[in-house]
Each structure stands twice: as C-alpha cells, then as structure tokens.
Amino acid sequence: MDYKKEIEQAFYSIMKDVYTEQNLQTIPQKYHDLFNMFGRFYPLINYISQSGLKRGLDFGCGCAITVVLGKLMGLDITGIDTHDSGSKSRNSYRKICKGLSVPDCIYTGIQNDLRAKGYIIINRNTGDFPWSEFKDDAFEFMCSYWGLNTNHSDKECDFKLRYQELIRITKPKGIWYIWPGIDDLIINNVHNKLQEKEIIIKNWVKRDILYSK
C-alpha cells in the first residue's frame, strides 16, 4: 500500500468515529464529504511534513482535519477555535440548526470527540488577549483555512491584536499558510512585527509566498 493511501484510510477511520449523526447535524453540508476534505487538506500537511517543520497551530480549526492528518504524518498540530460562535457565518448557520443543542460552536461535538481521542484542540474566545495557553515562540508554523479572513471572522475582534498574538506565539522565521489570503490593511498594521521575526506568509493551496521580509 502506498503512503498516501495508508494515511487516507487511517484518516477515514478516525473521522468516521466522530462524524456521528448528531455531530453532522450542526456543521455545514460542505464539510460532510470526508473524501473532499482529505483531498483539500492532505497536500498542505504532506508539504509541511516534508519541509522539516514539526510543531504548528491551526487557527480556526473547525473539524480539526489538519490536527488529525498532522498526527498521522508525524506533526504536532494544535487546533484552536472559538467557543462563543461569534462569527457572522456561524451564527447564520445556527439559525438553520434551530432546536439543536450546540453549546459553544457548530464544531463542538466533533472537537470534543477528537479531544477524547487525545487530539489537542483548544476552545477559547480568540478576541480576548493574551492567549495564556501559549508561550512565546511556541510554533514553527501556523495554518488557517478561512480563519483569518475578515469577511468570515468576527468583525468585533481587534484584528491587529489577533495578528500580534499570532506573531508572538510563532517562532522567528516561522511560516504561515493562509487561505484565501490576508488583507493588506492588516499586514500594514503588523508589518514591523512580522519583519522583526522574519515570518513568511504563504498561500495555503499554491504555497507561493504572499509576504516575506
């Protein structure tokens, strides 16, 4: 069996255990397809695993696909997600799920079940600073799929402070993998701090450089 197929089968086995009927009721339909999720996330995690990086953070981890794949491929990825469903997109989806028990955010059920299996997923209000769970320079890389897009995230959060906190917990010369991109206004606000630590920002899909010193 080739390496990718082995990882894929192990991934399906783990995720099917937490993709229960109850948990699937609370997440958007587009995330139900594990085949699509594997195809979307595997290339990046495989790329990172071959780059020599080890410890990373998935900001806005949702179903924690990267956390699961990372562990299967020898990486140590911590997931972080909001516990208060503050974002506009999540609140609008909660209206569709009217009557369902969604205590914190729409991914809570899946995240809790993965935590019970030993995966590290932290739920907190990411608009409250500092993030005391993390030491300075804790991570070699950070990835975020829509989590840092201002149209998707909680507009009430101070994005400058959020980026400053992400910079604080990223090691010097660390790498961020972002989709779909980062607003120039935000980059301009934290440009000096990014430069001080020589952080490189890459596109999640193409892995081309979006920002570097």
Oligomer: single chain
Q: Give the low-confidence spans.
A: 85-103
Approximate strand percentage: 15-25%
Q: Characterize the largest beta sheet: strand count, sense, and whether it forms a barrel.
A: 7 strands, mixed
Report helical residue fraction.
40-55%
How does the helix and strand content classify structurally?
Answer: alpha/beta
- Strand-and-helix sequence, N→C? HHHEHEHHEEHEHEE
Q: Terminal Cα separation, in Å?
A: 42 Å
Kindly report the average pLDDT value: 86
Q: What general outline do the C-alpha atoms trace?
A: globular
Total number of beta strands = 7
Strand order, largest beta sheet: 3-2-1-4-5-6-7
Give an overview in words:
The chain is an alpha/beta fold. It is built from eight helices and seven strands. The protein has helices at residues 3-18, 21-24, 34-51, 65-72, 88-96, 108-116, 159-168, 184-197; strands spanning 55-59, 76-81, 121-123, 139-145, 170-179, 200-203, 209-211. The chain has a seven-stranded mixed beta sheet, sandwiched between helices.
In brief:
With about 210 residues, this protein is of the alpha/beta class. The chain has helices spanning about 5-20, 20-25, 35-50, 65-70, 90-95, 110-115, 160-170, 185-195, and strands at about 55-60, 75-80, 120-125, 140-145, 170-180, 200-205, 210. α3 crosses α4 (about 65-70).
Helices and strands, with pairings:
Elements: H1 3-18, H2 21-24, H3 34-51, E1 55-59, H4 65-72, E2 76-81, H5 88-96, H6 108-116, E3 121-123, E4 139-145, H7 159-168, E5 170-179, H8 184-197, E6 200-203, E7 209-211
Parallel strand pairs: 1-2, 1-4, 2-3, 4-5, 5-6
Antiparallel strand pairs: 6-7
Helix pairs in contact: 1-4, 3-4, 7-8
